[in-house]
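> Could you send the Magnesium-dependent phosphatase-1 prediction when you get a chance?

Sure thing. Input:
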Amino acid sequence: MRPKLIVLDLDKVLWDHHNVSDLTPPFRRISERMIEDRFGEVVTLRDDVREFLSFAKRRGIKLSTCSWNHFDKALEVLKAFDLDKYFDLLMIEPHPEKQLMMERILRSLGVREEEVVYVDDRDYMLEKVRSKFPKIITIRFHPAGDCFSFRKLMELIGD
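Output:
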């Protein structure tokens, strides 16, 4: 598999927090993989995220987010982790219509649906995107299972 674009949800995919829009800035980095908000609520980056993003960029794969969040807070979290630099497009909007966001992502980045891999933690969101774009490869992230890891995704993409 060699996609031209990988689209990633943020909450529960890139990091363990369920909704960074609920957090209160400023964010402070407390380790390579952890930040905290003003009140000490911690967000932990998933295993191998940074390595995966770097891997994708080295192979010329475009990266985009597709996240149901408030843009400013999600961007601050990405910046606190120093991850914003990896993305070609940040599609972060405060509504669950990810199929509409995906339409704008494809148009903005000039990529066809069959060239896209989309990763989300919710079956419902994957189905919404699949119903409009059946050729997009969808992958469900489930941290408790063996279904997905960023390491496995790197292996699937390969050289």
